[in-house]
């Protein structure tokens, strides 16, 4: 593979750190020129990463940390920048590959700026698709880019969905681990803290997505993400609980065949797939040993204990800005849960009440529509806290 220019948005996060590991494993400076690395609070790590790969520019989204970043990069020749405008500018610099791994709706505008470049968009930030799916996909397409999903389920589906057979797809089957509270009653879930909710049984991920996995809001977002990525009808998106997280997702075809992608619970497989695409690279991940696995279990999801799944169905049915509303309300409720201001079960209750309160579901015709819907959902959610 020849030298390619790559930017990593959200470099200091869980996906970002794994991406830099994959870049190093795939040849580092022999294979890649790193354009922009971005972070927010963790400027010490950001500066260290930028020096290790000799990035062109390092950006923190947090303006107050500019001087720390600048000082840490003094004498290196690496540009330091800070603030939302600088983040969007750096994200838009020409690159052949962008890893979009900022967490939450905060990632939408920087990722859109990167999408305008064309090139490969390795998308981890699912909120881009949940909030602004049609717009985001149109932006990538108009720029002549290629959208590759990093989210393990969607990456799995991408791997087994032959575009030539698209018309024969009957169902997209997303697997869900069920999270740490898979067997909990609602009474047991009522008192859990962020500390227990973040302990995912199989995956090591950022704080917010780990808690979203426990509430199954992560799967709810992934249902909307799948609908946009694979352009299927809402009732073609199915969820099945699979506690071992070995089958990363499946596609069911009209002839009765079901194709699945399997692998270890290590994001470097999906990240490496996107960075090596259309080829495959060696990845230093654990190999599956089927004799040791012995058993793979599947069970129906329980929407009574995990109402997030039901809310996702509603968002899919409403379309338009419903995804932005679901996500905006969820982000506010999640922050409140992390801060100890809201109970675990109250997260879904808050989102449900916000969705019920929305009088109309405008179409998501422009970025302004999406941003307005997101803001309204956040305001309504905050009022309920
Ligand atoms: P982390 O919380 O670990 O990292 C988030 C990154 O975004 C960090 O670099 C963080 O900077 C940065 N960031 C935080 N807030 C802002 C902001 N307001 N503006 C700009 N940058 C900001 O998240 P993950 O790596 O776990 O997840 C990233 C995305 O990938 C999410 O959308 C998640 O849903 C998705 N994803 C993650 C998976 C995983 O395995 N982790 C799997 C599938 C999808 P800093 O840390 O310096 O503050
Ligand atoms: Mg996932």
From TrEMBL:
EC number in record: 1.1.1.267
GO BP terms, alphabetized = isopentenyl diphosphate biosynthetic process, methylerythritol 4-phosphate pathway involved in terpenoid biosynthetic process
Catalyzed reactions per annotation? 2-C-methyl-D-erythritol 4-phosphate + NADP(+) = 1-deoxy-D-xylulose 5-phosphate + NADPH + H(+)
> Residues in domain 1-deoxy-D-xylulose 5-phosphate reductoisomerase N-terminal?
6-133
Quote the record's binding site residues for 1-deoxy-D-xylulose 5-phosphate. 126, 152-153, 177, 200, 213, 218-219, 222
- Report whether Ion transport shows up as a keyword of the record: no
Main enzyme class:
oxidoreductase
The protein's annotated pathway: Isoprenoid biosynthesis; isopentenyl diphosphate biosynthesis via DXP pathway; isopentenyl diphosphate from 1-deoxy-D-xylulose 5-phosphate: step 1/6
Q: Which residues form a coiled coil?
A: none
Q: Which amino acids does the record list as binding Mn(2+)?
A: 151, 153, 222
MF (Gene Ontology): 1-deoxy-D-xylulose-5-phosphate reductoisomerase activity; isomerase activity; manganese ion binding; NADPH binding
Q: Using the record, list the residue span of the signal peptide; answer none if the entry has no such feature.
A: none
**Keyword Nuclease, does the record have it?**
no
Q: Where does NADPH bind?
A: 12-15, 40, 42, 125, 127, 206
Start and end residues of each 1-deoxy-D-xylulose 5-phosphate reductoisomerase C-terminal domain: 147-230
* Record's keyword terms, sorted: Isomerase, Isoprene biosynthesis, Magnesium, Manganese, Metal-binding, NADP, Oxidoreductase
Instruction: Tell me which cofactor or cofactors this protein depends on.
Output: Mg(2+); Mn(2+)
Taxonomically, the superkingdom here is Bacteria
Residues annotated as domain DXP reductoisomerase C-terminal: 262-379
Q: What does this protein do?
A: Catalyzes the NADPH-dependent rearrangement and reduction of 1-deoxy-D-xylulose-5-phosphate (DXP) to 2-C-methyl-D-erythritol 4-phosphate (MEP).
Instruction: Give the family from UniProt.
Output: Belongs to the DXR family.
Q: This chain belongs to which protein, by name?
A: 1-deoxy-D-xylulose 5-phosphate reductoisomerase
């Amino acid at each position: 593979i020849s030298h390619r220019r790559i930017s990593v948005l959200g470099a200091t996060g869980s996906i970002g750190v794994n991406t830099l590991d994959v870049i190093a494993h795939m040849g580092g400076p022999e294979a890649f020129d790193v354009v922009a690395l971005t972070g927010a609070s963790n400027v010490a790590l950001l500066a260290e990463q930028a020096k290790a790969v000799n990035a062109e520019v390092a950006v923190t989204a947090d303006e107050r940390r500019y001087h720390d970043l600048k000082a840490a990069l003094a004498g290196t020749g690496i540009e330091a920048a800070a603030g939302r405008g600088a983040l969007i500018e750096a994200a838009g610099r020409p690159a052949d590959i962008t890893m979009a791994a900022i967490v939450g709706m905060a990632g939408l505008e920087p990722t859109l700026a990167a999408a305008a470049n064309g090139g490969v968009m390795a998308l981890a930030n699912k909120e881009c698709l949940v909030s602004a799916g049609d717009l985001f996909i149109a932006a990538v397409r108009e720029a002549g880019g290629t959208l590759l999903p990093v989210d393990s389920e969607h990456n799995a589906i991408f791997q087994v969905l032959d575009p030539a057979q698209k018309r024969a797809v009957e169902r997209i089957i997303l697997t869900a681990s069920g999270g740490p509270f898979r067997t909990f009653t609602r009474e047991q879930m009522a008192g859990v803290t962020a500390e227990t909710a973040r302990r995912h049984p199989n995956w090591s991920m950022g704080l917010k997505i780990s808690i979203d996995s426990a509430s199954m809001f992560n799967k709810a977002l992934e249902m909307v993400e799948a609908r946009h990525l694979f352009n299927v009808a809402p009732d073609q998106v199915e969820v099945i609980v699979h506690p071992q997280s070995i089958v990363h997702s499946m596609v069911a075809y009209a002839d009765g065949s079901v194709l699945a992608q399997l692998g270890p619970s290590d994001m470097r497989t999906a990240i490496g797939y996107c960075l090596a695409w259309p080829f495959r690279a060696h990845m230093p991940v654990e190999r599956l040993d089927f004799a040791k696995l012995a058993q793979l279990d599947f069970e129906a999801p329980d929407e009574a204990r995990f109402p997030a799944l039901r809310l996702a169905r509603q968002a899919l049915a409403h379309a338009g800005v419903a995804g932005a509303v679901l996500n905006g309300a969820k982000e506010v409720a999640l922050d409140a849960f992390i801060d100890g201001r809201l109970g675990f079960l109250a997260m879904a209750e808050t989102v449900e009440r916000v969705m019920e309160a929305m009088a109309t579901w405008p179409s998501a015709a422009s970025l302004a529509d999406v941003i307005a819907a997101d803001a309204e959902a956040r305001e309504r959610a905050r009022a309920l806290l």
